[in-house]
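Researcher: Going back to the complex we discussed earlier. I've cleaned up the inputs and rechecked each line, so this should be the final set. Can you rerun the prediction on the complete assembly and write out the structure?
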Amino acid sequence: MAAVTDFDRALAPVYHQDRENKYGLVDWLTTVDHKKIGILYGAAGLIYFLIGGLEAVLMRIQLALPDQNIFIGDTFNGLVTMHATTMVFMAIMPMIAAFSNYFVPLMIGARDVAFPRMNAFSWWTFFFGSVLLNSSLIFAEFPAAGWTGYAPLTSKGITPSQGIDFWWAGLTMLAISSMVAGVNFVVTILNMRAPGMTLMRVPVLAWMMLVIQFLLAFSFPPVAVGLILLAFDRTFGTVFYEYTMGGDPHLWQHLFWVFGHPEVYVLILPSMGIVSEILPVFARRPLYGQHAVIFSGIFIGFVGFGVWGHHMFTSGMGPIADAVFASTTAIIAIPTAVKIFNWLGTLWNGKLSFPTAMLFAVSFIPLFTIGGLSGIMHANAPLDLQQHDSYFVVAHFHYVLVGGAIMGLFAGFYFYMPKISGKMMSESLGKIHFWLFAIGMNVTFWPMHDLGNRGMPRRIYTYPADAGWNVDNLLATGGVVLMAIGTLIFVYNLVTSVKGGRDAGRDPWDASTLEWLCDSPPKVHNFDFTPVVYSERPLWDHKYSPDMAISVPTQAEEIHMPSNSWKPMYVSIGILMILVGLLLIGTLPFSWLLSIAGAITIIASLIAWVTEPV
Amino acid sequence: MAKVAQARSPYAVLVRSSAKSLRFCLSPTTRWAGRMLRTIQPIRLPDWYTRQFGLLSPARTGSTSRKSLLSPVLLIAAIIAIAAVAGCSTELAPRDTHATISDSGNISSFFYKMLLYVDIVIGVAVFGFLAVAIVRFRRAAGDDSLPPQNHGDARLELIWTAIPTVIVVVITIPMLVGLFQLAKHPDQNQKIIEIDVTGKQWWWDFTYKSGTANGLQTANEVHVEANTAVVMNMTSSDVIHAWWIPRLTGKRDATPGRTYPLYFTPLEPGIYDGQCAELCGASHAVMGTKLFVHPPAKEVEVEYAGKKYTLDSYETWAREQMASSVAPATPELEKGAKLFRDKTCPACHLVKGLEGAESAGQSVTTGPNLTHVGSRMTIAANTLLNTPQNLAKWIQDPQAVKPGAKMTKIAMTPDEAAAIAAYLTSLK
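Model: Rerun complete. Updated structure for the full complex:
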């Protein structure tokens, strides 16, 4: 076993224009470094995760007992809407963006993403969009039409509240951010791989990121169109969704769900990738059927575009459309099952050890399976007529998104933090976090299956005492307390580990992919020399097969890293100005002047952007 | 000799030649498939396949000093324990989605049971393999040896792709049959109760279109007959709602500008609760509805919420409801009726037979029809029991009962509210 520290003896590269690794405020504001942007995304995602969690706790307090009057009416609906919007768009997606930003270039042996300034633009657009959306609480009130925002509940006549305006404006910015990031990462993964890294040698996490970037790039345009139509309806009095004038409320549902379902796979595939990275490391063997896992991910991505109608079985599309969407939905079960079997195959005959990262990764399998099994029930259209919009669905998607996506992301944090900060997270705190969260998660969401079976609809702020829902609701609220405590312990663990953790070294887990070849934390240019790859486990082969060791070149490499830039942020501010100007129409006279100023800002900054030397 | 004779039999020649040609036609495909599979999944350890299933052959070493098995096993145990506590209660909930009482509801319940068994089998298999793997293949302390470094097995991949495929096909075919059954309009030659349903923020308007009750309008409480097919035409006048009685059948969206049908034949007389299932604004949670399934002929006694109620036959009920409202019989009721008019209630509410409240014209659908409001079990969309006290409370401050309620809050003294409530209660 060759020591990884051999690389310390590598020749110092020649820098053309080096960027020092500084951490001042200006450095964070102007950074184009994929690692710093990843950290920004991760921090934002965690903060929003806490906010979204707080909203969930408030909802569960209201629902703990029947006939309570703490948060009722549109206050509760606002919590419902913001909990889902926050968790989907501002917690899980930026956490995914964090892993994708930080680790995709490292995993494929690249020095940065293909378009570093575009990457910074994605981040700032996300940041301003999410702040704009949440500022609705300060300037107006929370949007209260559900994260699905079904027309015509969002129309100006029925919901005059400006909260909806903040909602479409914020989501439009998040959509722009995601589409740009999608294009950027597709190009990065396809073009910037290290020599010898064929597509089949790309790590599974990077592969899943590639799949979701395609999903982002193709699924966000429909919802962006839907949001812009909504903006026109509310701001300029058009009638796209106005049934009395020939518009159609179902248009929104189709535009939303043709985005909304691929979005679900955007949330879950990266966690599947993280699990596929972690299981082999702690089983000390290759991922079983790696190609099958990759291809099933691609298959899910493709078929995911053809199943959106299963959110609309009760809307009256007719039996033919229902039959098609029900059948395509059932097909999704096949690649999902293949993935689960291959993870079991990885564990089988391995040498398993269970640090916190592995606990979260292993628990992903049963929890996600439960979500998948209730998904099989929803794919059955006649049965879904009963379960649709009931707590059974709430249980289903929380098993998939908490038991699946969040468990996978937690696993990722414990697994990858040593690389990001160079320090280990505490294992004992980690295990407390795991048990509190895993048990709390089940205590919260399992009874919701029962609530759905007992006929409790979702998104209701109160329920009568005699409906038979009291025990389950109380249990669910109790579970949320466990999850909340677990999450706070996790945040404490994460923050303290950055300063006080044990040094991690290059390769604390005896892992097999290229990111563990870099320093912890990696240098600005990631790799002193570009590694040449001969298998899908370059580092493992280096350590365990002497004839496949990664060779250190004798010639020093010339490295050129792009310099920091303000321009991406300026363009994002221009977009923010346009949207704020639009949503103030009718409230503030001449607010459209702000939009025009925003457009000028964008054009000026873009000119400065393209003429700026890098 | 015998061989030759056999080969010459025309039947044998046909079989052999067609088998040959079939093989010839398929061989490029099979060869291609085989090549593809080999490129996708190179088999590095051919004997691995047998060991994979050889539960008896110990592929591991140094299993004496294992770590505690507790942690991962506990998780699975915890899930099962919670399932046992919360999921498997046998007591019948008042809105149980699987104790259905209609033909179409029974289709949904059937699929629930069918898929529950399928899910249990799959779940036990996956959880079982996971538990065995976690227990059997734990790394012993100080064990630095490497496990098998194989990358998979093409045959296993094929098998575990084929198994879910077969399951998906097997469960999808009956689903399609059930789906089209649900969408079938009932036979036109039999008696059908047809009801137009309009969802409104935040109550339900039912207009009967057939039989004795033709033209009748009720609010929030809908009455049908056991063993008679019902066609409901769902629509909405503001936002999307969804009408859902869990014990009856699946929900159907009420979409503004569109009308979609819901078909069912209730089979069991009784009183069943439900509510709106699609987020429709501030008072979505208190947009309830109630279904009364009347017996076809004689009256029957049914149990609801722990009490006994007598349900007339559907025809009797319909005849009573078609009558005009009773005239106020006492001076107190007369005073209530006058207040009802003076406080401009008839601007939104129709009371058939009450002078000054009949000619409400087009505004009649703004609020519920109150002609027989006294005969209703609940008011405010199944939110409050229909008592004079509750009625007075609702009339005085609707928004206190339902946030954002569209009914105008009209200034009145408690005595005035009580008088109006007394009059409305008399409208049996």
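Model: Worth noting: The first strand of chain A starts at residue 14 and ends at 17.
Researcher: Good, that matches what I expected from the previous run.
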